[in-house]
Design the sequence.
């Protein structure tokens, strides 16, 4: 590892841990207000969707709404399977498969 | 879609540990292609084998590791990459605050360990376990099982990408990163049972598209906060009068 790489990896590791740890470290002394607890319920879906939606529709900075976009077709199939069967493994693998097939087809 | 186990016989640390690992399997399947592509792309972005492996071992945050590769490819300074890592991983602050009520009674060692291994996937699986009404005092073992299986898989896949990735032509262009999209959709769907949750998802997704050109992935935080605020407002509006 070069010195630059060393700084890169240790810097990234440090900031990531300093995000993940302090709230837990202080948790013994923290009393969370009711409003914050209510907000926390919405964190997982809000964050996941904020990552996923651009990953589906944005292609090098532009919106790509088209059947040619295999990620849209893959996402629709994933949602459909998720609604049909409450089975996470099935949802992920069939969604992946639909995406790969459509990518080959178009 | 139940991510966490429904009924467990008597709760012991090991039983919880294995249940956590088992419940994480679908999410591991989704993470496999992601880890392999990271290993494959690392070398073409100019990162040495040791540095790529060290990143997976010490940082353990997939999306920020990918973004770091992208920035290395455009010769961004180390400071910029570390700052971007901070922004991309800020969502983990929301996760760790979400765990505070459940991890409060644990010792400092447990807290540090569970914090280091906190990922999107483990948070999603663990929070469902913590919210189950049974009074097991070993639920943190469930989180540990999930965390360690994700971590082991991430190391293995990084290594596979670093070693075998070079012999697969254009491995990075197959779009295998769609696995992440399918996984995250699968993790979101169980939440969509109530009107406030649906409102959260619609607003967060729409905002993420509108805010896509904000620098350093800030659009992610803006969209998440807009979605959370919307969910709370809809919840308050639809609450029956007391």
Sequence:
């Amino acid at each position: 590892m070069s010195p630059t790489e060393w700084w890169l990896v240790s810097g990234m590791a440090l900031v990531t841990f300093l995000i993940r740890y302090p709230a837990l470290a202080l948790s013994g002394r923290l009393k969370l207000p009711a409003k914050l607890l209510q907000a926390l319920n919405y964190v997982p879906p809000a964050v996941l969707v904020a990552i996923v939606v651009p990953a589906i529709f944005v292609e090098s900075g532009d919106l790509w709404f088209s059947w040619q976009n295999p990620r849209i077709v893959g996402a629709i199939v994933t949602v459909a399977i998720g609604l049909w069967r409450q089975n996470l493994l099935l949802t992920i693998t069939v969604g992946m498969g639909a995406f790969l097939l459509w990518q080959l087809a178009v | 879609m139940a991510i966490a186990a429904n009924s467990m016989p008597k709760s012991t640390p090991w039983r919880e540990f294995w249940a956590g690992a088992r419940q994480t399997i679908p999410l591991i399947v989704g993470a496999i292609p992601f880890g392999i592509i990271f290993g494959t792309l690392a070398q073409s972005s100019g990162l040495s084998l040791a540095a790529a492996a060290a990143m997976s071992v010490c940082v353990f945050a997939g999306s920020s590791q990918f973004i770091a590769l992208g920035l290395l490819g455009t010769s961004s300074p180390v400071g910029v990459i570390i700052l971007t890592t901070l922004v991309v991983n800020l969502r983990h602050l929301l996760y760790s605050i979400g765990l505070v009520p459940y991890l409060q009674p644990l010792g400092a060692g447990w807290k540090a360990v569970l914090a280091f291994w906190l990922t999107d996937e483990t948070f999603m699986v663990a929070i469902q376990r913590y919210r189950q009404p049974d009074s097991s005092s070993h639920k943190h073992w469930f989180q540990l099982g999930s965390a360690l299986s994700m971590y082991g898989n991430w190391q293995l896949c990084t290594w596979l990408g670093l070693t075998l990735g070079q012999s697969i032509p254009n491995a990075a262009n197959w779009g295998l990163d769609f696995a992440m999209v399918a996984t995250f959709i699968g993790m979101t769907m169980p939440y969509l049972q109530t009107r406030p949750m649906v409102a959260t998802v619609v607003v967060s997704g729409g905002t993420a598209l509108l805010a896509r050109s904000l620098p350093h992935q800030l659009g992610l935080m803006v969209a998440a906060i807009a979605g959370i605020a919307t969910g709370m407002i809809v919840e308050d509006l639809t609450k029956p009068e007391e």
